[in-house]
Amino acid sequence: MKPLALSIGDPSGIGPDLALSLWSQRRQLNVPEFLVLGDVEQLRLRAKHLQLDAPIEISNPANAKTDFQHFLPVQPLKNKLIENIGTPLSENAAGIIEAIEQAVALTLAGDTSAVVTCPISKKPLYDTGFEHPGHTEFLASLASQHLGHPVMPVMLLAGPDLRAVPVTIHIPLHDVPQQLTTQLIEETIIITERDLRTRFDIKEPRIAVSGLNPHAGENGALGHQDESVILPVVMKLRSKGMDIKGPLPADTMFHARARQNYDVAICMYHDQALIPAKALAFDESVNVTLGLPFIRTSPDHGTAFEIAGQGIARPDSLLAALKLAQTLSLTALKESA
Protein backbone atom coordinates (compact mmCIF):
# COMPACT_ATOMS: atom_id res chain seq x y z
CA MET A 1 0.00 0.00 0.00
CA LYS A 2 1.17 3.55 -0.76
CA PRO A 3 1.95 5.96 2.11
CA LEU A 4 -0.74 8.22 3.54
CA ALA A 5 -0.67 11.92 2.66
CA LEU A 6 -0.78 14.10 5.80
CA SER A 7 -1.48 17.79 5.31
CA ILE A 8 0.05 19.62 8.27
CA GLY A 9 -2.87 22.00 8.88
CA ASP A 10 -2.29 25.35 10.55
CA PRO A 11 1.39 25.32 11.59
CA SER A 12 0.64 27.56 14.58
CA GLY A 13 -1.56 24.83 16.06
CA ILE A 14 -0.92 21.31 17.29
CA GLY A 15 -0.73 19.63 13.87
CA PRO A 16 3.10 19.73 13.81
CA ASP A 17 3.24 18.58 17.46
CA LEU A 18 1.10 15.54 16.68
CA ALA A 19 2.95 14.57 13.51
CA LEU A 20 6.31 14.79 15.28
CA SER A 21 5.04 12.95 18.35
CA LEU A 22 3.63 10.08 16.31
CA TRP A 23 6.76 9.74 14.20
CA SER A 24 8.84 9.61 17.40
CA GLN A 25 6.60 6.77 18.66
CA ARG A 26 6.14 5.10 15.27
CA ARG A 27 7.38 1.67 16.39
CA GLN A 28 5.70 1.55 19.80
CA LEU A 29 2.34 2.68 18.37
CA ASN A 30 2.59 0.90 15.01
CA VAL A 31 1.99 4.17 13.17
CA PRO A 32 1.12 3.80 9.45
CA GLU A 33 3.71 5.40 7.18
CA PHE A 34 2.78 8.91 6.12
CA LEU A 35 4.25 11.67 3.97
CA VAL A 36 3.86 15.16 5.42
CA LEU A 37 2.81 17.98 3.13
CA GLY A 38 4.43 20.84 4.97
CA ASP A 39 7.54 22.95 5.53
CA VAL A 40 10.78 21.23 6.55
CA GLU A 41 12.26 24.26 8.33
CA GLN A 42 9.06 25.00 10.27
CA LEU A 43 8.88 21.38 11.42
CA ARG A 44 12.54 21.41 12.45
CA LEU A 45 11.94 24.52 14.54
CA ARG A 46 8.96 22.87 16.23
CA ALA A 47 10.91 19.67 16.91
CA LYS A 48 13.70 21.72 18.48
CA HIS A 49 11.18 23.66 20.58
CA LEU A 50 9.61 20.39 21.75
CA GLN A 51 13.07 18.89 22.37
CA LEU A 52 12.25 15.94 20.15
CA ASP A 53 15.03 14.01 18.46
CA ALA A 54 13.20 13.78 15.15
CA PRO A 55 15.21 14.12 11.94
CA ILE A 56 13.14 15.77 9.22
CA GLU A 57 14.10 15.53 5.56
CA ILE A 58 12.65 16.09 2.10
CA SER A 59 11.07 13.01 0.54
CA ASN A 60 8.46 12.01 -2.03
CA PRO A 61 5.67 9.43 -2.32
CA ALA A 62 7.90 6.83 -3.98
CA ASN A 63 10.40 6.81 -1.10
CA ALA A 64 8.29 7.88 1.86
CA LYS A 65 7.50 4.40 3.23
CA THR A 66 11.18 3.48 3.43
CA ASP A 67 12.24 6.95 4.55
CA PHE A 68 9.63 6.90 7.34
CA GLN A 69 11.71 4.33 9.20
CA HIS A 70 14.67 6.73 9.37
CA PHE A 71 13.26 10.27 9.35
CA LEU A 72 10.01 12.20 9.09
CA PRO A 73 9.47 12.46 5.31
CA VAL A 74 8.20 15.80 4.04
CA GLN A 75 7.23 16.86 0.55
CA PRO A 76 7.92 20.60 0.64
CA LEU A 77 5.57 23.36 -0.42
CA LYS A 78 6.17 26.25 -2.79
CA ASN A 79 4.65 28.54 -0.16
CA LYS A 80 6.67 28.70 3.05
CA LEU A 81 5.08 28.16 6.45
CA ILE A 82 6.20 30.49 9.23
CA GLU A 83 6.72 29.12 12.73
CA ASN A 84 4.56 31.20 15.09
CA ILE A 85 3.40 28.96 17.92
CA GLY A 86 -0.08 29.61 19.26
CA THR A 87 -1.13 32.48 17.01
CA PRO A 88 -2.31 31.88 13.44
CA LEU A 89 -0.88 34.03 10.66
CA SER A 90 -2.64 35.06 7.47
CA GLU A 91 0.81 34.80 5.82
CA ASN A 92 0.54 31.02 6.23
CA ALA A 93 -2.80 30.73 4.41
CA ALA A 94 -1.30 30.00 0.99
CA GLY A 95 0.88 27.20 2.38
CA ILE A 96 -1.97 25.69 4.39
CA ILE A 97 -4.17 25.58 1.28
CA GLU A 98 -1.34 24.25 -0.88
CA ALA A 99 -0.70 21.39 1.56
CA ILE A 100 -4.33 20.28 1.25
CA GLU A 101 -4.27 20.61 -2.53
CA GLN A 102 -1.06 18.57 -2.77
CA ALA A 103 -2.40 15.82 -0.52
CA VAL A 104 -5.53 15.52 -2.67
CA ALA A 105 -3.59 15.63 -5.95
CA LEU A 106 -1.16 12.92 -4.82
CA THR A 107 -4.01 10.67 -3.69
CA LEU A 108 -6.09 11.16 -6.82
CA ALA A 109 -2.97 10.33 -8.87
CA GLY A 110 -2.52 7.09 -6.91
CA ASP A 111 0.82 8.17 -5.42
CA THR A 112 -0.58 8.15 -1.88
CA SER A 113 -3.38 5.97 -0.57
CA ALA A 114 -5.50 8.45 1.39
CA VAL A 115 -5.68 12.03 2.65
CA VAL A 116 -5.36 12.68 6.38
CA THR A 117 -5.74 16.31 7.37
CA CYS A 118 -4.48 18.08 10.48
CA PRO A 119 -6.74 20.86 11.80
CA ILE A 120 -6.96 24.27 10.18
CA SER A 121 -8.22 27.61 11.47
CA LYS A 122 -10.68 29.29 9.14
CA LYS A 123 -10.02 32.93 10.06
CA PRO A 124 -6.53 33.33 8.53
CA LEU A 125 -7.85 31.63 5.39
CA TYR A 126 -10.91 33.89 5.22
CA ASP A 127 -8.65 36.92 5.69
CA THR A 128 -6.92 36.04 2.41
CA GLY A 129 -10.05 35.37 0.36
CA PHE A 130 -10.73 31.66 1.02
CA GLU A 131 -14.35 31.17 -0.02
CA HIS A 132 -15.25 27.74 1.37
CA PRO A 133 -17.13 27.27 4.67
CA GLY A 134 -14.52 24.78 5.86
CA HIS A 135 -12.11 21.94 5.21
CA THR A 136 -14.72 19.46 4.00
CA GLU A 137 -16.31 21.84 1.51
CA PHE A 138 -12.87 22.70 0.08
CA LEU A 139 -12.09 19.01 -0.37
CA ALA A 140 -15.44 18.53 -2.10
CA SER A 141 -14.60 21.43 -4.42
CA LEU A 142 -11.26 19.83 -5.33
CA ALA A 143 -13.01 16.51 -5.95
CA SER A 144 -15.63 18.22 -8.14
CA GLN A 145 -12.91 19.87 -10.23
CA HIS A 146 -11.27 16.48 -10.72
CA LEU A 147 -14.48 14.66 -11.67
CA GLY A 148 -16.08 17.46 -13.66
CA HIS A 149 -19.33 17.37 -11.69
CA PRO A 150 -20.46 18.32 -8.17
CA VAL A 151 -19.98 15.88 -5.30
CA MET A 152 -21.87 15.83 -2.03
CA PRO A 153 -19.62 15.29 1.00
CA VAL A 154 -21.04 13.51 4.03
CA MET A 155 -19.50 13.85 7.49
CA LEU A 156 -19.11 10.63 9.49
CA LEU A 157 -17.81 10.51 13.06
CA ALA A 158 -16.30 7.08 13.64
CA GLY A 159 -15.32 5.75 17.05
CA PRO A 160 -14.83 2.30 18.57
CA ASP A 161 -18.49 2.06 19.62
CA LEU A 162 -20.42 4.43 17.36
CA ARG A 163 -20.58 5.76 13.81
CA ALA A 164 -22.74 8.87 13.50
CA VAL A 165 -23.62 11.08 10.52
CA PRO A 166 -25.18 14.55 10.83
CA VAL A 167 -27.43 15.39 7.87
CA THR A 168 -27.03 19.12 8.46
CA ILE A 169 -23.70 20.35 9.77
CA HIS A 170 -22.47 23.87 10.48
CA ILE A 171 -25.69 25.86 10.51
CA PRO A 172 -27.60 27.52 13.37
CA LEU A 173 -30.03 25.22 15.13
CA HIS A 174 -33.03 27.39 14.24
CA ASP A 175 -32.22 26.87 10.52
CA VAL A 176 -32.20 23.06 10.72
CA PRO A 177 -35.94 22.41 10.13
CA GLN A 178 -35.89 24.53 6.96
CA GLN A 179 -32.70 22.90 5.66
CA LEU A 180 -33.92 19.33 6.22
CA THR A 181 -35.48 18.04 3.02
CA THR A 182 -36.39 14.55 1.92
CA GLN A 183 -33.82 14.87 -0.87
CA LEU A 184 -30.99 15.86 1.49
CA ILE A 185 -31.80 13.07 3.94
CA GLU A 186 -32.12 10.48 1.17
CA GLU A 187 -28.85 11.46 -0.54
CA THR A 188 -27.01 11.46 2.79
CA ILE A 189 -28.23 7.96 3.62
CA ILE A 190 -27.49 6.58 0.14
CA ILE A 191 -23.90 7.90 0.20
CA THR A 192 -23.39 6.60 3.73
CA GLU A 193 -24.75 3.13 2.93
CA ARG A 194 -22.60 2.86 -0.20
CA ASP A 195 -19.37 3.89 1.53
CA LEU A 196 -20.03 1.58 4.48
CA ARG A 197 -20.18 -1.28 1.99
CA THR A 198 -17.27 -0.30 -0.26
CA ARG A 199 -14.86 1.23 2.26
CA PHE A 200 -15.82 -0.10 5.68
CA ASP A 201 -16.45 -3.64 4.36
CA ILE A 202 -19.91 -3.82 5.97
CA LYS A 203 -21.79 -5.96 3.47
CA GLU A 204 -25.33 -5.12 4.62
CA PRO A 205 -25.22 -1.92 6.69
CA ARG A 206 -27.86 -1.53 9.38
CA ILE A 207 -28.99 2.08 9.49
CA ALA A 208 -30.80 3.86 12.33
CA VAL A 209 -32.34 7.25 11.55
CA SER A 210 -33.05 9.69 14.35
CA GLY A 211 -36.04 11.96 14.58
CA LEU A 212 -35.68 15.72 14.65
CA ASN A 213 -38.01 16.54 17.50
CA PRO A 214 -38.24 15.16 21.06
CA HIS A 215 -39.66 11.63 21.06
CA ALA A 216 -39.41 11.69 17.23
CA GLY A 217 -42.34 14.11 17.17
CA GLU A 218 -44.69 11.92 19.22
CA ASN A 219 -47.09 11.36 16.30
CA GLY A 220 -47.09 15.02 15.35
CA ALA A 221 -47.72 16.41 18.81
CA LEU A 222 -44.15 17.78 19.07
CA GLY A 223 -43.48 18.69 15.45
CA HIS A 224 -44.38 17.48 11.98
CA GLN A 225 -40.97 16.91 10.35
CA ASP A 226 -40.52 13.39 11.71
CA GLU A 227 -43.65 12.14 9.93
CA SER A 228 -43.72 14.46 6.91
CA VAL A 229 -40.01 14.66 6.00
CA ILE A 230 -38.03 11.83 7.61
CA LEU A 231 -40.46 8.90 7.61
CA PRO A 232 -41.13 8.95 3.82
CA VAL A 233 -37.38 8.61 3.17
CA VAL A 234 -37.07 5.68 5.55
CA MET A 235 -40.05 3.91 3.98
CA LYS A 236 -38.79 4.53 0.43
CA LEU A 237 -35.29 3.20 1.12
CA ARG A 238 -36.63 0.23 3.07
CA SER A 239 -38.85 -0.67 0.10
CA LYS A 240 -35.68 -0.77 -2.02
CA GLY A 241 -34.10 -3.34 0.28
CA MET A 242 -32.10 -1.16 2.63
CA ASP A 243 -31.89 -2.29 6.28
CA ILE A 244 -33.13 0.94 7.81
CA LYS A 245 -35.31 1.94 10.75
CA GLY A 246 -36.65 5.24 12.01
CA PRO A 247 -37.32 7.93 12.77
CA LEU A 248 -36.24 6.94 16.27
CA PRO A 249 -36.25 9.08 19.43
CA ALA A 250 -32.71 10.41 19.69
CA ASP A 251 -32.63 10.19 23.48
CA THR A 252 -32.79 6.38 23.40
CA MET A 253 -30.60 5.70 20.35
CA PHE A 254 -27.16 5.82 21.90
CA HIS A 255 -27.14 3.59 24.97
CA ALA A 256 -25.10 0.40 24.77
CA ARG A 257 -27.95 -2.00 23.93
CA ALA A 258 -29.39 0.29 21.27
CA ARG A 259 -26.01 0.65 19.55
CA GLN A 260 -25.83 -3.11 19.07
CA ASN A 261 -28.73 -2.87 16.60
CA TYR A 262 -27.17 -0.62 13.96
CA ASP A 263 -23.92 0.13 12.15
CA VAL A 264 -24.51 3.86 11.72
CA ALA A 265 -26.77 6.50 13.22
CA ILE A 266 -28.11 9.11 10.80
CA CYS A 267 -28.76 12.25 12.82
CA MET A 268 -30.57 15.41 11.81
CA TYR A 269 -28.15 18.05 13.07
CA HIS A 270 -24.58 18.61 14.22
CA ASP A 271 -24.81 18.19 17.98
CA GLN A 272 -27.26 15.30 17.77
CA ALA A 273 -24.45 13.29 16.17
CA LEU A 274 -21.32 14.78 17.70
CA ILE A 275 -22.33 14.87 21.36
CA PRO A 276 -22.75 11.08 21.68
CA ALA A 277 -19.73 10.44 19.44
CA LYS A 278 -17.45 12.62 21.55
CA ALA A 279 -18.96 11.55 24.86
CA LEU A 280 -18.24 7.90 24.04
CA ALA A 281 -14.74 8.34 22.58
CA PHE A 282 -13.44 11.90 22.79
CA ASP A 283 -9.80 10.99 22.16
CA GLU A 284 -10.44 8.25 19.60
CA SER A 285 -13.14 9.66 17.32
CA VAL A 286 -12.22 10.20 13.69
CA ASN A 287 -13.87 12.53 11.20
CA VAL A 288 -14.34 10.71 7.88
CA THR A 289 -15.60 12.45 4.75
CA LEU A 290 -17.80 10.14 2.71
CA GLY A 291 -18.88 10.77 -0.88
CA LEU A 292 -15.45 11.78 -2.21
CA PRO A 293 -13.44 9.94 -4.90
CA PHE A 294 -10.65 9.51 -2.35
CA ILE A 295 -10.43 8.54 1.30
CA ARG A 296 -10.17 11.41 3.76
CA THR A 297 -9.93 11.22 7.53
CA SER A 298 -8.98 13.74 10.18
CA PRO A 299 -8.69 13.91 13.96
CA ASP A 300 -11.88 15.02 15.64
CA HIS A 301 -10.47 18.15 17.27
CA GLY A 302 -9.33 21.62 16.35
CA THR A 303 -6.05 23.50 16.16
CA ALA A 304 -5.77 23.91 19.97
CA PHE A 305 -3.56 26.98 19.64
CA GLU A 306 -3.57 27.38 23.42
CA ILE A 307 -1.51 24.21 23.97
CA ALA A 308 0.58 24.22 20.77
CA GLY A 309 4.29 23.78 21.34
CA GLN A 310 3.87 22.62 24.94
CA GLY A 311 4.30 18.91 24.30
CA ILE A 312 1.00 18.04 25.98
CA ALA A 313 -1.28 17.53 22.95
CA ARG A 314 -2.54 13.95 22.84
CA PRO A 315 -1.99 12.26 19.46
CA ASP A 316 -4.70 9.61 19.99
CA SER A 317 -7.22 11.04 17.52
CA LEU A 318 -4.64 11.63 14.77
CA LEU A 319 -3.30 8.12 15.30
CA ALA A 320 -6.84 6.77 15.01
CA ALA A 321 -7.34 8.84 11.84
CA LEU A 322 -4.15 7.44 10.29
CA LYS A 323 -5.03 3.86 11.20
CA LEU A 324 -8.59 4.18 9.94
CA ALA A 325 -7.33 5.72 6.67
CA GLN A 326 -5.01 2.74 6.29
CA THR A 327 -7.85 0.28 6.95
CA LEU A 328 -10.23 2.01 4.54
CA SER A 329 -7.51 2.11 1.88
CA LEU A 330 -6.89 -1.62 2.20
CA THR A 331 -10.63 -2.30 1.91
CA ALA A 332 -10.85 -0.09 -1.18
CA LEU A 333 -7.92 -1.96 -2.72
CA LYS A 334 -9.64 -5.27 -2.06
CA GLU A 335 -12.91 -3.99 -3.56
CA SER A 336 -11.15 -2.82 -6.72
CA ALA A 337 -9.15 -6.02 -7.19
UniProtKB/TrEMBL annotation:
Alphabetized InterPro entries for the sequence: PdxA (IPR037510), PdxA_fam (IPR005255)
Top enzyme category: oxidoreductase
Role noted for this protein: Catalyzes the NAD(P)-dependent oxidation of 4-(phosphooxy)-L-threonine (HTP) into 2-amino-3-oxo-4-(phosphooxy)butyric acid which spontaneously decarboxylates to form 3-amino-2-oxopropyl phosphate (AHAP).
Cofactor note: Binds 1 divalent metal cation per subunit. Can use ions such as Zn(2+), Mg(2+) or Co(2+).
Gene encoding the protein: pdxA
EC number in record: 1.1.1.262
Localization per Swiss-Prot or TrEMBL: Cytoplasm
GO cellular component: cytoplasm
Similarity-based family: Belongs to the PdxA family.
UniProt keywords, alphabetically: Cobalt, Cytoplasm, Magnesium, Metal-binding, NAD, NADP, Oxidoreductase, Pyridoxine biosynthesis, Zinc
Required cofactor(s): Zn(2+); Mg(2+); Co(2+)
UniProt-annotated binding residues for a divalent metal cation: H170, H215, H270
Coiled coil: none
Principal cellular location given in the protein's record: cytoplasm
Catalytic activity: 4-(phosphooxy)-L-threonine + NAD(+) = 3-amino-2-oxopropyl phosphate + CO2 + NADH
A single MF term (Gene Ontology): 4-hydroxythreonine-4-phosphate dehydrogenase activity
PANTHER family: 4-HYDROXYTHREONINE-4-PHOSPHATE DEHYDROGENASE (PTHR30004), D-THREONATE 4-PHOSPHATE DEHYDROGENASE (PTHR30004:SF6)
Binding annotation for substrate: H135, T136, K278, N287, R296
Organism: Paenochrobactrum gallinarii
Protein name (record): 4-hydroxythreonine-4-phosphate dehydrogenase
One GO process term, biological-process aspect: pyridoxal phosphate biosynthetic process
Pathway: Cofactor biosynthesis; pyridoxine 5'-phosphate biosynthesis; pyridoxine 5'-phosphate from D-erythrose 4-phosphate: step 4/5
Entry annotated with the keyword Acetylation: no
